Amino acid sequence: MEPVIDPGLNSAVERYYDITLDLYEDLWGEHVHHGFWDPGETPGLEGADRHAATDRLVHELVDYTGVPAGSRVLDVGCGIGGPAMHLAGPLGCTVEGITLSALQAARANEKAEAAGVAGRARFHQRDALANGYPDESFGVVWAMESLMHIADREAFFAEAMRLLTPGGTLAVATWAVRDGELDDDERELVRQILVHQVMPDFSSLEEHERLAAAAGFTEVATVDWSSAVANSWDPGFAQIQQFERGPKVMRDLARRRGVDVLGFFHAGPLMKKGFDTGVITYGALRATKPRQDSPQAPPSGPTP
Protein backbone atom coordinates (compact mmCIF):
# COMPACT_ATOMS: atom_id res chain seq x y z
CA MET A 1 0.00 0.00 0.00
CA GLU A 2 1.38 3.37 -1.01
CA PRO A 3 1.16 6.01 1.73
CA VAL A 4 -1.31 8.82 1.18
CA ILE A 5 0.64 12.07 1.60
CA ASP A 6 -1.34 15.30 1.72
CA PRO A 7 1.02 18.09 0.60
CA GLY A 8 -1.48 20.71 1.72
CA LEU A 9 -1.62 19.33 5.25
CA ASN A 10 2.15 18.91 5.38
CA SER A 11 2.66 22.52 4.32
CA ALA A 12 0.20 23.72 6.96
CA VAL A 13 1.93 21.72 9.69
CA GLU A 14 5.33 22.98 8.56
CA ARG A 15 4.12 26.59 8.62
CA TYR A 16 2.49 26.20 12.04
CA TYR A 17 5.68 24.95 13.68
CA ASP A 18 7.84 27.46 11.82
CA ILE A 19 5.83 30.42 13.11
CA THR A 20 5.42 29.08 16.66
CA LEU A 21 8.94 27.68 17.18
CA ASP A 22 10.13 30.49 19.43
CA LEU A 23 6.79 30.73 21.23
CA TYR A 24 6.93 27.09 22.26
CA GLU A 25 10.58 27.31 23.23
CA ASP A 26 10.11 30.53 25.23
CA LEU A 27 7.09 29.17 27.10
CA TRP A 28 7.65 25.42 27.25
CA GLY A 29 11.43 25.06 26.98
CA GLU A 30 13.02 22.34 24.89
CA HIS A 31 9.98 20.05 24.95
CA VAL A 32 7.06 20.72 22.61
CA HIS A 33 4.78 18.27 24.39
CA HIS A 34 2.73 17.63 27.53
CA GLY A 35 4.05 17.25 31.07
CA PHE A 36 3.41 14.29 33.35
CA TRP A 37 2.33 14.45 37.02
CA ASP A 38 1.51 11.96 39.74
CA PRO A 39 -2.02 12.02 41.19
CA GLY A 40 -2.56 15.10 43.33
CA GLU A 41 0.34 17.10 41.88
CA THR A 42 -0.36 20.47 40.32
CA PRO A 43 1.92 22.66 38.17
CA GLY A 44 3.98 25.21 40.01
CA LEU A 45 2.58 24.41 43.44
CA GLU A 46 3.43 21.25 45.33
CA GLY A 47 3.99 19.31 42.12
CA ALA A 48 6.78 19.16 39.58
CA ASP A 49 7.68 22.32 37.71
CA ARG A 50 7.15 22.53 33.97
CA HIS A 51 10.60 21.39 32.88
CA ALA A 52 10.64 18.44 35.26
CA ALA A 53 7.13 17.50 34.14
CA THR A 54 7.94 17.51 30.42
CA ASP A 55 11.18 15.61 31.08
CA ARG A 56 9.14 13.15 33.11
CA LEU A 57 6.91 12.36 30.12
CA VAL A 58 9.96 11.34 28.08
CA HIS A 59 11.18 9.07 30.87
CA GLU A 60 7.71 7.54 31.24
CA LEU A 61 7.55 6.67 27.54
CA VAL A 62 11.04 5.17 27.65
CA ASP A 63 10.10 3.06 30.65
CA TYR A 64 6.68 2.00 29.36
CA THR A 65 7.95 0.94 25.95
CA GLY A 66 11.27 -0.47 27.16
CA VAL A 67 13.55 1.50 24.82
CA PRO A 68 16.91 -0.31 25.07
CA ALA A 69 19.98 1.78 25.85
CA GLY A 70 22.25 2.21 22.84
CA SER A 71 19.47 1.71 20.30
CA ARG A 72 19.38 3.27 16.85
CA VAL A 73 16.23 5.41 17.01
CA LEU A 74 14.10 7.20 14.44
CA ASP A 75 12.40 10.14 16.16
CA VAL A 76 9.31 10.89 14.07
CA GLY A 77 8.23 14.49 14.57
CA CYS A 78 11.31 15.38 16.59
CA GLY A 79 10.39 19.01 17.27
CA ILE A 80 13.41 20.95 18.54
CA GLY A 81 15.02 17.78 19.81
CA GLY A 82 14.02 17.68 23.49
CA PRO A 83 13.32 13.92 23.76
CA ALA A 84 16.27 13.12 21.48
CA MET A 85 18.64 14.83 23.91
CA HIS A 86 17.67 12.27 26.55
CA LEU A 87 17.75 9.34 24.12
CA ALA A 88 21.19 10.31 22.77
CA GLY A 89 22.52 11.49 26.15
CA PRO A 90 21.80 9.32 29.21
CA LEU A 91 20.53 6.37 27.12
CA GLY A 92 23.42 6.48 24.63
CA CYS A 93 21.15 5.95 21.63
CA THR A 94 21.94 7.07 18.08
CA VAL A 95 19.02 9.23 16.94
CA GLU A 96 17.83 10.34 13.54
CA GLY A 97 15.16 13.00 14.03
CA ILE A 98 12.75 14.03 11.29
CA THR A 99 10.28 16.92 11.15
CA LEU A 100 8.35 18.77 8.48
CA SER A 101 9.77 22.06 9.78
CA ALA A 102 13.21 23.05 8.51
CA LEU A 103 13.44 25.61 11.32
CA GLN A 104 12.79 22.94 13.94
CA ALA A 105 15.43 20.66 12.44
CA ALA A 106 17.98 23.46 12.40
CA ARG A 107 17.23 24.41 16.01
CA ALA A 108 17.44 20.75 17.10
CA ASN A 109 20.87 20.41 15.47
CA GLU A 110 22.02 23.54 17.31
CA LYS A 111 20.80 22.11 20.62
CA ALA A 112 22.50 18.75 19.95
CA GLU A 113 25.78 20.57 19.30
CA ALA A 114 25.42 22.58 22.50
CA ALA A 115 24.59 19.44 24.49
CA GLY A 116 27.61 17.57 23.13
CA VAL A 117 25.55 14.84 21.45
CA ALA A 118 25.76 15.99 17.81
CA GLY A 119 27.70 12.82 17.01
CA ARG A 120 24.72 10.73 18.11
CA ALA A 121 21.76 12.95 17.21
CA ARG A 122 21.06 14.43 13.79
CA PHE A 123 17.90 16.14 12.60
CA HIS A 124 16.43 16.52 9.12
CA GLN A 125 13.45 18.00 7.32
CA ARG A 126 11.69 14.89 6.03
CA ASP A 127 8.20 13.46 5.70
CA ALA A 128 7.49 10.56 8.05
CA LEU A 129 5.87 8.57 5.23
CA ALA A 130 8.55 9.35 2.63
CA ASN A 131 11.66 9.47 4.76
CA GLY A 132 14.18 7.73 2.47
CA TYR A 133 15.59 5.34 5.08
CA PRO A 134 16.24 1.72 4.06
CA ASP A 135 14.27 -1.23 5.39
CA GLU A 136 15.15 -2.39 8.91
CA SER A 137 17.23 0.70 9.68
CA PHE A 138 16.18 1.20 13.30
CA GLY A 139 15.77 -0.69 16.54
CA VAL A 140 13.22 1.85 17.78
CA VAL A 141 10.68 4.07 16.04
CA TRP A 142 9.71 6.83 18.47
CA ALA A 143 6.77 9.17 17.87
CA MET A 144 5.98 11.60 20.69
CA GLU A 145 2.93 13.72 19.90
CA SER A 146 3.44 13.62 16.14
CA LEU A 147 1.03 10.94 14.97
CA MET A 148 -1.91 13.37 15.31
CA HIS A 149 -0.52 15.36 12.35
CA ILE A 150 -0.45 12.29 10.05
CA ALA A 151 -3.72 11.71 8.24
CA ASP A 152 -2.91 8.19 6.99
CA ARG A 153 -2.23 6.40 10.27
CA GLU A 154 -2.50 3.00 8.66
CA ALA A 155 0.44 4.01 6.46
CA PHE A 156 2.37 5.23 9.53
CA PHE A 157 2.17 1.83 11.21
CA ALA A 158 3.12 0.09 7.97
CA GLU A 159 6.13 2.40 7.59
CA ALA A 160 7.19 1.80 11.19
CA MET A 161 7.05 -1.94 10.53
CA ARG A 162 9.22 -1.49 7.42
CA LEU A 163 11.81 0.60 9.22
CA LEU A 164 12.21 -1.55 12.32
CA THR A 165 14.60 -4.44 12.66
CA PRO A 166 13.01 -7.76 13.74
CA GLY A 167 12.32 -7.54 17.45
CA GLY A 168 12.35 -3.72 17.25
CA THR A 169 10.17 -1.44 19.36
CA LEU A 170 7.50 1.06 18.40
CA ALA A 171 7.04 3.79 21.04
CA VAL A 172 4.17 6.26 20.61
CA ALA A 173 2.69 8.97 22.82
CA THR A 174 -0.31 10.70 21.33
CA TRP A 175 -3.33 12.89 21.79
CA ALA A 176 -6.47 10.85 21.22
CA VAL A 177 -10.25 10.98 21.43
CA ARG A 178 -12.67 8.99 23.55
CA ASP A 179 -13.71 5.76 21.85
CA GLY A 180 -17.30 5.61 20.64
CA GLU A 181 -19.84 8.10 19.36
CA LEU A 182 -19.62 11.79 20.28
CA ASP A 183 -22.58 14.12 20.51
CA ASP A 184 -22.87 17.31 18.46
CA ASP A 185 -21.23 19.55 21.07
CA GLU A 186 -18.35 17.11 21.55
CA ARG A 187 -17.78 16.84 17.81
CA GLU A 188 -17.69 20.64 17.53
CA LEU A 189 -15.12 20.87 20.34
CA VAL A 190 -12.94 18.30 18.58
CA ARG A 191 -13.35 20.14 15.27
CA GLN A 192 -12.14 23.41 16.78
CA ILE A 193 -9.11 21.75 18.37
CA LEU A 194 -8.18 20.12 15.08
CA VAL A 195 -8.41 23.40 13.21
CA HIS A 196 -6.31 25.36 15.68
CA GLN A 197 -3.67 22.63 16.04
CA VAL A 198 -3.45 21.80 12.30
CA MET A 199 -4.46 18.16 12.69
CA PRO A 200 -6.61 16.08 10.31
CA ASP A 201 -8.48 14.07 12.95
CA PHE A 202 -8.05 12.10 16.16
CA SER A 203 -8.07 8.35 16.68
CA SER A 204 -8.98 6.65 19.95
CA LEU A 205 -6.35 4.67 21.84
CA GLU A 206 -8.31 1.55 20.96
CA GLU A 207 -8.09 2.42 17.26
CA HIS A 208 -4.33 2.87 17.56
CA GLU A 209 -4.12 -0.65 18.99
CA ARG A 210 -6.17 -2.04 16.13
CA LEU A 211 -4.03 -0.31 13.50
CA ALA A 212 -0.79 -1.56 15.07
CA ALA A 213 -2.06 -5.12 15.22
CA ALA A 214 -3.33 -4.94 11.63
CA ALA A 215 0.13 -3.81 10.49
CA GLY A 216 1.60 -7.00 11.94
CA PHE A 217 2.92 -5.78 15.30
CA THR A 218 2.83 -8.08 18.29
CA GLU A 219 2.78 -7.38 22.03
CA VAL A 220 0.62 -4.34 21.31
CA ALA A 221 -0.52 -2.46 24.40
CA THR A 222 -1.71 1.01 25.36
CA VAL A 223 -1.95 2.95 28.59
CA ASP A 224 -4.25 5.92 29.25
CA TRP A 225 -2.27 8.85 30.67
CA SER A 226 -5.05 11.43 30.36
CA SER A 227 -5.22 12.25 34.06
CA ALA A 228 -1.41 12.38 34.32
CA VAL A 229 -0.97 14.96 31.52
CA ALA A 230 -4.16 17.05 31.75
CA ASN A 231 -2.47 19.67 33.96
CA SER A 232 -0.46 20.70 30.89
CA TRP A 233 -3.41 22.89 29.91
CA ASP A 234 -3.68 24.56 33.30
CA PRO A 235 -3.43 28.30 32.44
CA GLY A 236 -0.42 28.75 34.69
CA PHE A 237 1.47 25.84 33.17
CA ALA A 238 0.69 26.74 29.56
CA GLN A 239 1.72 30.34 30.33
CA ILE A 240 -0.25 31.55 27.35
CA GLN A 241 -1.81 34.32 29.43
CA GLN A 242 1.55 36.11 29.31
CA PHE A 243 0.67 37.15 25.78
CA GLU A 244 -2.99 37.95 26.39
CA ARG A 245 -2.47 41.66 26.95
CA GLY A 246 -5.28 42.91 24.82
CA PRO A 247 -6.39 42.79 21.18
CA LYS A 248 -3.63 45.07 19.91
CA VAL A 249 -0.89 42.63 20.94
CA MET A 250 -2.70 39.77 19.24
CA ARG A 251 -3.34 41.82 16.10
CA ASP A 252 0.31 42.79 15.89
CA LEU A 253 1.40 39.19 16.32
CA ALA A 254 -1.01 38.02 13.62
CA ARG A 255 0.15 40.81 11.29
CA ARG A 256 3.80 39.79 11.69
CA ARG A 257 3.36 36.03 11.47
CA GLY A 258 -0.05 35.45 9.90
CA VAL A 259 -3.35 34.55 11.51
CA ASP A 260 -2.37 30.89 11.85
CA VAL A 261 -0.27 31.79 14.87
CA LEU A 262 -3.43 32.57 16.84
CA GLY A 263 -4.23 28.86 16.96
CA PHE A 264 -1.41 28.54 19.48
CA PHE A 265 -3.38 30.71 21.90
CA HIS A 266 -6.85 29.34 21.21
CA ALA A 267 -5.81 25.74 21.83
CA GLY A 268 -5.31 26.05 25.59
CA PRO A 269 -8.91 26.57 26.76
CA LEU A 270 -10.22 24.08 24.19
CA MET A 271 -7.80 21.36 25.25
CA LYS A 272 -8.58 21.99 28.93
CA LYS A 273 -12.29 21.57 28.20
CA GLY A 274 -11.54 18.43 26.20
CA PHE A 275 -9.67 16.82 29.10
CA ASP A 276 -12.19 18.06 31.69
CA THR A 277 -15.07 16.47 29.79
CA GLY A 278 -13.20 13.28 28.85
CA VAL A 279 -13.62 13.90 25.13
CA ILE A 280 -9.88 14.33 24.62
CA THR A 281 -7.66 11.58 25.95
CA TYR A 282 -3.94 10.92 25.91
CA GLY A 283 -1.96 7.73 25.99
CA ALA A 284 1.05 5.69 25.01
CA LEU A 285 1.34 2.67 22.75
CA ARG A 286 4.04 0.05 22.66
CA ALA A 287 4.43 -2.69 20.08
CA THR A 288 7.07 -5.08 18.77
CA LYS A 289 8.01 -6.12 15.26
CA PRO A 290 8.02 -9.93 15.25
CA ARG A 291 11.38 -11.63 15.05
CA GLN A 292 11.96 -13.63 11.89
CA ASP A 293 12.07 -16.86 13.87
CA SER A 294 8.87 -16.08 15.82
CA PRO A 295 6.12 -18.67 15.43
CA GLN A 296 3.40 -17.49 13.14
CA ALA A 297 -0.24 -17.50 14.16
CA PRO A 298 -2.20 -20.41 12.66
CA PRO A 299 -4.35 -19.53 9.66
CA SER A 300 -7.97 -18.76 10.39
CA GLY A 301 -10.79 -20.82 8.99
CA PRO A 302 -11.44 -24.56 8.80
CA THR A 303 -8.56 -26.99 8.41
CA PRO A 304 -8.73 -28.76 5.05
TrEMBL record:
One of its GO terms (biological process) is methylation. Residues 136-144 are annotated as: SAM motif II. Keywords: Methyltransferase, S-adenosyl-L-methionine, Transferase. Gene3D superfamilies: Vaccinia Virus protein VP39 (3.40.50.150). The lineage of its organism: Bacteria, Bacillati, Actinomycetota, Actinomycetes, Kitasatosporales. One of its GO terms (molecular function) is S-adenosylmethionine-dependent methyltransferase activity. Belongs to the class I-like SAM-binding methyltransferase superfamily. gTMT family. This is Delta(24)-sterol C-methyltransferase. Residues 39-304 form the Polyketide synthase-like methyltransferase domain. InterPro entries: Erg6_SMT_methyltransf, MeTfrase_dom, Methyltransf_11, PiNMT-like, SAM-dependent_MTases_sf. Residues 163-172 are annotated as: SAM motif III. It comes from the Bacteria. Pfam families: Methyltransf_11. Residues 73-82 are annotated as: SAM motif I. The keyword Nucleotide-binding does not apply.
